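Risk register update: the risk of archive-format incompatibility is retired. Evidence:
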Amino acid sequence: MQAFAAGLPSPEQAVWWLGPLPVRAYAVCILVGIVAAIWITQHRLKGRGGTGEEIYDVAPWAIGFGIVGGRIYHVVSSPRPYFGEGGEPWDALRIWEGGLGIWGAVALGAVGVWIGCRRHGHSFLDLADSLMPGLLVAQALGRWGNWFNNELYGGPSDAPWALTIHQWDAGAGEAVRDASGEAVVLGTFQPTFLYESLWCLFVAVLILVLDRRVRFARGQVVALYLMGYTAGRLVIELMRTDPAEIVFGQRVNVWVSVLVFLVGVALYFWRGSKADYPVRGPARTEAGQDRNDPEKALTPEA
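Archived output:
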């Protein structure tokens, strides 16, 4: 144990029981992230001429679709633990043990936001642009669930910030222990969960600063999110050593990051060419209409 004393610590337990009810750190991190995203988005909507209450109309749709999409993407992109040799297909439903793919969550979550906007008469692009910094903060907080689960780390490292990783019993939600009751340590590794968490916070702050200084067209902030997040995710993905499907010599998420980055570039220039700018400032009436132009403030796009 002394050989790993210099590394950053990892928890030895990620599940606590309140009677028959398990409290899982992974789920708590996700829930805290959701709350933070809703709060940030509410304030940003007010700056775009909204009341801030619009997020509550779409949040149930976004969260529900996002969780389903994240799980589907995780299972499809990492099928061997579930459908490979020795795998257990029913474990694909055990979402509480961890395993949400961000791109599935974003893709189906966006569908949920669109449905919510259509049902309640809100502008999808205004709401999506408002959501992006909060989504990044939610991702940053959610990554700490991986820390609790001792998962998603990089290669071996003896750097001062290297992460101590335990041999993990995912079913029990705790570290495996030796005969003396000590948690079994595998070594110290690159804390890629931490790198991604910090990168998400950096991109969130960058978008907030730029959005105050630059007049972006509707949809361009979404493009900034796609480009900013994937730029860091590509580097971090190349550092990870957890099992993953390999396509053309690289992890599948490497190729997905490249593709999504290019989509972000295309979206940025396409939306910029539209010159479709959102209303700025709290200029809405109690009825939700813009005082300056009732046709423009958070209304559905034509």
